[in-house]
Amino acid sequence: FPSRLPDVGTTIFTVMSALATRTGAVNLGQGFPDFDCDPALPEQVCQAMKRGLNQYPPMAGVPALRQAVAKKIGTLYGHAYDAESEVTVTAGATQAILTAVLCCVHPGDEVIVLEPCYDSYAPNIELAGGRVVRVPLTPGSFRPDFEAIGAAIGPRTRAIIVNSPHNPTGTVWTREEMQALADLLAPTDVLLISDEVYEHMVFDGRPHVSASAIPALAARSFVVSSFGKTFHVTGWKVGTVAAPAALTAEFRKVHQFNVFTVNTPVQHALAAYLADPQPYLGLAGFYQAKRDRFREGLAGTRLRLLACEGTYFQTVDYSAVSSLGEAAFCEWLTTEIGVAAIPISAFYADGREQRLARLCFAKKDETLNLALVRLTTL
Ligand code: PMP
Ligand code: GLN
After folding, report:
1. Taking CB atoms and a 6 Å cutoff, what residues make up the pocket around ligand 1?
2. pTM for this entry
3. Per DSSP, what are the bridge partners of residue 223?
4. CB–CB of 94/249 below 8 Å?
5. CATH 3.90.1150.10 region(s) of the chain?
6. How far is it, in rounded angstroms, from Cα 124 to Cα 140?
7. Is the CB of 30 under 6 A from ligand 2?
8. Nearest to 100 by CA among 92, 108, 29
9. Which of 57, 108, 112, 335 has its CA 20 to 30 A from that of 148?
10. Is 18 exposed, middle or buried (0-12, 13-18, 19+ CB in 10 A)?
11. C-alpha distances in angstroms, 168 versus 14, 249, 271, 277, 346?
12. Numbered ranges of CATH 3.40.640.10 in the chain
């Protein structure tokens, strides 16, 4: 039968992780930590299971978790979401974004994405029958180009997907940039899907400016978070969406026939764990130290470092090292040098070549050291 996604193959993250495993390379490709989470977390999951919290939770999520998330957003970003009608627990950010797209995009609607962008956005829009409108971030700096975004907004524009802190380039939108987006959208009814999965990994004292912190944006936004990134549990696949009640009502119509609910004991564990803000407030310092150690090591190589304001990704320009295309370079780096990376071209529909590769530093210090020893041979 005709494919719904004719141009889609296996994701680059799966491909590079498989190659890293096969070749024994240090895997700095797919974004996940190689260290475990706080043992208190699985302990709390076990306790919830032993307490018999093993049946379906409410469709929108365990109330205690929704309340904890609403409280966190209120404290950090100053927007008071109603836990009952405005916060939904999802099966990670991936399902959150797909569900947000499915609930608002009608066939023929346009959705703007800012390239390079996470690989699930475009297929999500296509599955909804929407048209993907790609606007490049400013080449080199990867900052938003509001003139280009404004020019892309038309009568069929239904939504824009924004991701800050940004995977793969590590840029973090400033308050002025978020405000500029609010100003641009003000005369329109364009919705914002704000992918904020790296919200707690922002460095050098910068703030994370959530869409929820700008009232004009909060009123039109699905704000997406993921516990996988924040608590080092990417395999748990639990996230949240905060959105005004009217948007949440539409979101839940799709959510209930999509996953219906998310793992009960894990939600109870996360609710209890969120009572202490230290683990997420301490995350920026934890990853900043890894970023600094990694960048210091890379400074001795011929790789040119792009700025890394947030996330756990460092993008490098390898043009002084090799004239290979990005995919070929990352494959060579994996098989010959023993370090797996992700080509930035994978985040563009046209696969454009800029001689850039992404390295994930969410790794134990010894893993980073081993990678640096290998990369220093470049
Ligand atoms: N958005 C971005 C920008 C991501 O990097 C990721 C995964 N790393 C996701 C969404 C998906 O998150 P989750 O694993 O919670 O589905
Ligand atoms: N988000 C992670 C990354 O960017 C990987 C997620 C995935 O494997 N799909 O590397």
Report:
1. 31, 92-94, 118, 163, 167, 195, 197, 226, 228, 234, 237, 239
2. 0.98
3. 194, 242
4. no
5. 12-30+282-375
6. 27
7. yes
8. 92
9. 108
10. middle
11. 16, 32, 29, 27, 10
12. 40-277
| Domain over 12-30+282-375 is classified CATH 3.90.1150.10 | yes
- List the pLDDT tens digit at each of the 378 positions of the chain: 999 999 899 999 999 999 999 999 999 999 999 999 999 999 999 999 999 999 999 999 999 999 999 999 999 999 999 999 999 999 999 999 999 999 999 999 999 999 999 999 999 999 999 999 999 999 999 999 999 999 999 999 999 999 999 999 999 999 999 999 999 999 999 999 999 999 999 999 999 999 999 999 999 999 999 999 999 999 999 999 999 999 999 999 999 999 999 999 999 999 999 999 999 999 999 999 999 999 999 998 999 999 999 999 999 999 999 999 999 999 999 999 999 999 999 999 999 999 999 999 999 999 999 999 999 999
Instruction: For residue 227, report the distance from its CA to the centre of ligand 1, in Å.
Output: 10
| CA-proximal residue: ligand 1, atom 8 (nearest) | 31
Helix (H, G, I), strand (E, B) or coil at 242: strand
Provide the 3-class DSSP secondary structure of residue 359.
strand
The position carrying tokens 């470092």 is 305
Token pair of 291 as six digits: 């970023």
Give 40-277's CATH code, choosing from 3.40.50.150, 3.30.420.40, 3.30.70.890, 3.40.640.10.
Answer: 3.40.640.10
In degrees rounded to 5, what are phi and psi of residue 68?
A: -65, -40
